[in-house]
Design a protein that fits this description.
By secondary structure, this protein is an alpha/beta fold. It is about 40% helix and about 20% strand. Bound molecules: 6-O-phosphono-beta-D-fructofuranose. 6-O-phosphono-beta-D-fructofuranose binds next to helix 1.
Amino acid sequence: MKLVVVSNRVARAKTNEPMTGGLAAALLPLVESSGAIWVGSSGQILDDSSANAFATIETLGKGALALLDLPAAHYGGYYEGFANSALWPALHSRVDLIRTSQDDYESYREVNAFMARALLRFRTPDTAFWVQDYHFLALGAELRALGTTHPIGFFLHTPWPAASVMRCVPHHRELIERMLAYDLVGFQTAADCENFAGYLRTELGLAVKGGVVASPYGITRLATFPIGIDVDVFAAQAAKAALHPEVSRLRRSLEGKKLAIGVDRLDYSKGLVARVDVFDRILTLHPELKRKVSFLQIATPSRGTIEAYGALQDELARHVAEVNGRHGEVDWTPIRYLNKGFGQTVLAGFYRTAHVGVVTPFHDGMNLVAKEYVAAQNPQDPGVIVLSKFAGAANELDAALLINPHDTDAVARSIAAALAMPLSERRARWETMMRRLRTNTIHQWFSRFMAALADTRINDILVDAKQPVVPLQARPGHGSAALH
Ligand code: F6P
């Protein structure tokens, strides 16, 4: 089988370039080792949509990376518009931040159709497609409309919220009906999967039994595949990174004092302003910790042209300045705040240097930083992770100090407890978490998804392949009732 993986953002082939978001970092070793073709956005736009859209195709380990210029007329409406100002806020239960238009939706659909046409170049009799994330909810249906009966899987990296939240997304019904063109739809957690099944039952009137649903497209399976990391590779990278000049600089600057670290994309789902409040609170409640601990927050900007992101960046910068102004000394700054990305090796070294990992999102599909922080620790002297209950990673990392990120005092108490935790408890918690991480690495995640995709096709008892049906809404007399 030849696998074609599709995502909006891809990791660049250059080693140790900063990577934005967990998806790119997670897929990179898979493509390198499996020989898959990874297709994604080049980040450039194309004025002439009849020109060759493939900017570059280069080798990536045993696989290849194919970068596509997306159509200029639709890129903004697709990426900043529908994907990141309608779907992203809804998927993270921030319906108050939904800002979108009919044009955005049409651009989103156009880019999904454009990507489907571009993918035909890689279609051979034994190709399987694996579509990643909310940018391409309708891509499977577009591929089916082009006659593709090949296996197509979909994996969502973000949470999937309750049906009452998804109902706030314009055109939700049409989009989610189209998701049934996928053979397999994978989620990070059982709760996300159950929310999706709940939507199919309540909004589309479909029967979901044993994770299987039938629609005019054929059979679709719903299942949970928590994404993992390359645990031992990351651990080895962290151990080696101690010698990296940037990591040494950080360690020297601590002068033997303690460090807490947070590494996130600058996004409202990550709870960054609340996290700064926590540090304010810690230093107010425990003035004895002044100068004994600093907090390094790396907040990598993305989606900066969207108003909510620009506003957050301003608010966060102001807030950090206020807290530093309140608690700082002429020779000590409590919060070190950086708006830039770092390569994986340097980050691995930073995680190992930090005594506490602070991962406190309000909502997060998985949060691979949490897993990487744990994997990066020195087994003889591991740090402690303070982790939001609302990150998918909390299901596996239940030996972390689990917190509610909305409860500032409780998070402050947990960080203070982490800083004071005896070595025996740190080791016991860390060993438990490492055992869990090793049972679900990124490679196991990949194999499980692929096995489930193959299995879905073998066990498809109603139809022996997905139907290349005309999209439901486009057929006369077939509104959403066609699915009931
Ligand atoms: O993990 C969620 C995600 O949206 C990924 O799809 C993406 O790679 C990452 O966050 C970064 O987002 P963006 O590409 O919009 O900066």
